[in-house]
Give the backbone structure.
Amino acid sequence: MNEKKERFSWILHSKSNKQSVDFSNKIIIDDKNVKGSIEMVEPRKGGKIYISDLQTGSEEFTLNVEDPDGSPLSLFFPIQGNSLADIEELGQQLELKTEHHTSFIPPAPRAAFQIEKETRWITVSMGLSAHFLQNLFEGGGVVPHHYRQYVERNILDPLAIEMVHKPAMMNIAKELINCPYEGVMRKLFIEAKLLELVVLHMDMLQDTNDRENPSVRLSIRNKNAVMRVRDRLLADLRAPPSLETLAIEVGMNSKQLNKAFRSFFGQTVFEYLRDVRLEHARLLLEKHDLPLKEIAWRIGYIHTNNFSNAFTTRFGISPGRYRMLH
């Protein structure tokens, strides 16, 4: 008996053309209105990564995706280019923005992504099977409420959860796109990054416990306050306001602000600031030949050693070594 070949079916269509592609690994698309590639990698049984990098032409196009096998959990990370998603099982249209990732529970076996003309659309998504989730929590551990019924092989109503990225999650998604390895090493690298994304996502869900619980649901006022604080932090990475100052500016105390910020971003105010600072330093190392002392100063570190230690802890490599490799 022939082994069943797992596959995705993608249908690309615009006003002037329609193309259907089934694949189990990677395809290159060279069409009048869309060019690029779509790749599927399954580094661990039941855990799949999909990497899409498409450039549209002079017409809008729709990417229809059908997954006949389905997975209890799908995570979608837009890296570049916003889109609209029509999810059949949810009966609604979602706006997928680059500052958020979205989990679909259960994933839609049929979905349509509407992408604007003349747009570069880069995404990383994951499909996790019930078997994968069961193995993940084998031997104990707290299963996030949303996934508990899937791990126990029960049924849950379709649901989409949108969450603001932790900076670390975007870094991992970009590392998947720019994987420097081939062969077995590439598979191991992708498996490690898949697990990192799953851990960070579930940690965020665990922090908020249950988004349907009113006790963790942010009011519109608090959401606005959190976004104001985020903008204030990003405006001056070198010398941001203190936590107390930020709290006063938005009419909270420090504890209330940290709680609201963590509910929305999955991190406290200065955990978020630390990750953004180090991500900015990483980009400076890649694009500029600045002394480490200058980079440290630009992101708010007085002592270069403290910056180097923080960078090494975050990325697993010293800033000097990182610059040499990039």
User: Anything to note?
Assistant: The domain at 8-208 is CATH 2.60.120.10 (Jelly Rolls).
